[in-house]
Specification:
There is one protein chain. Helix content is 36%, strand content 14%. It has 355 residues and is α/β, with parallel strands linked by helices. The chain has an 8-stranded mixed beta sheet, sandwiched between helices. α2 crosses α3 and α5 runs antiparallel to α8.
Length: 355
């Protein structure tokens, strides 16, 4: 979860519904600042119990660096619709396919950024995009044998027509941040099968399941959602203490009523399904490292969900750029937005423009 959440879009940004091949998703879309040369586009995926508003404070500084940024509510999150009770709709593979559709609607290639749970969904999307396409069936082998008949003159039928599918495009930044580790990008994607992503950044998102204490908090939340309404769970969370300590949303400038509205807008099946994923996610770093893409691992100085040494090791295994944001914990994008934005833009600048 993030701290310092604000629900008003930043100046110049638009909040709207993004139509995709897999449905409609609520987004906040921040264009490049006036007078700044455009460098690229980034798609941001929020974490567990989070929303697109978790990235509000990084939009403007990234716009000033030349990047259009689009933050999205995933299926069943806050202002994006989804089934209230069908957990199968929120299987990780389904959410990964949503991300590929969102990226296509925004315009590819783009930089992909995932925070916490969003990072693991982003990882699944990259692996899905890089997986070999299913082979097309041989038309001849799928046709029945022609009936036996006397020879006769015939006129061959013309081949069926092909199919085509279209695709749908601020203050100066000078914070301090930790010096990133030396970075060597992985090889460029094969031109024969280009990836829809220019890079992947994982913010406070680890290699596998969350820590033991966090699993207990998520289990507490999932158990409550099995027998209580979202409204009743919210009331229980508020009565038990700070929401961030018992599995609920963090407090922030958005105010209790806005956080409550976000909580009630999120579908319970989404929380139950993704909470289970966080507690059972396998280590897929070796798979990811085989995908030829530049990687960036960002975290705060302290993280109870995935300990910082675990994130350090993951970055080494990915041959990724590694940035630790001073003064931040599990949500650097909200705890320290300026140094986080600078780290993101510096990394994207190092990746360069696609050929």
């Amino acid at each position: 979860m993030s701290r310092h959440v604000t629900f008003a879009p930043p100046p110049g940004a638009s909040a709207y519904i993004l139509p995709t091949a897999r449905g409609e998703f609520a987004v906040v879309d921040s264009p490049v600042a006036d007078g700044v040369e455009p460098k690229g586009v980034a798609l941001f995926l929020p974490g567990f119990t989070g929303s697109k508003e978790d990235f509000t404070l990084v939009h403007a500084p990234l716009a000033a660096r030349g990047y259009r940024t689009v933050a999205v509510d995933g299926r069943g999150q806050f202002e994006s619709d989804g089934p209230a009770d069908d957990e199968s709709a929120y299987a990780q593979g389904e959410l990964a396919r949503d991300v590929l559709a969102q990226a296509a609607a925004v315009g590819t290639p783009l930089h992909l950024v995932g925070h916490s749970l969003g990072g693991q969904i982003a990882r699944a999307a990259v692996l899905l995009a890089a997986s070999p396409p299913l082979p097309l069936p041989d038309p001849a082998s799928s046709l029945p044998a022609p009936p036996s008949r006397a020879p006769t003159s015939s006129t061959p039928s013309p081949p069926p027509p092909g199919l085509t599918s279209p695709t749908p495009s601020r203050p100066s930044l000078s914070p301090t941040s930790s010096e990133p580790a030396p970075f060597s990008p992985n090889p460029a994607p094969s031109p024969s099968r280009p990836l829809p992503f220019r890079s992947l950044t994982l913010i406070a998102s680890g290699p596998a399941e969350i820590s033991g204490p966090q699993q207990q908090r998520v289990k507490l939340l999932r158990d409550a959602l099995e027998v209580m309404s979202m409204e009743k769970v919210w009331e229980a969370i508020r009565a038990m203490g700070p929401p961030e300590d018992v599995g609920g949303p963090a407090r922030g400038p958005g105010g209790p009523e806005q956080l409550r509205r976000r909580w009630l807008g999120t579908k319970p099946a989404q929380l139950r399904a993704t909470g289970h994923q966080l507690c059972t996610e396998p280590d897929r770093v070796a798979e990811l490292s085989a995908v030829p893409l530049p990687y960036h691992v960002v975290s705060g100085e302290r993280d109870e969900t995935w300990p910082v040494p675990l994130l350090d090791d993951m970055a080494l295994r990915l041959r990724a750029r590694r940035t630790i944001i001073p003064g931040a914990e599990h949500s650097p994008n909200a705890d320290q937005p300026l140094p986080t934005a600078r780290a993101l833009a510096d990394f994207w600048d190092s990746v360069g423009k696609p050929a």
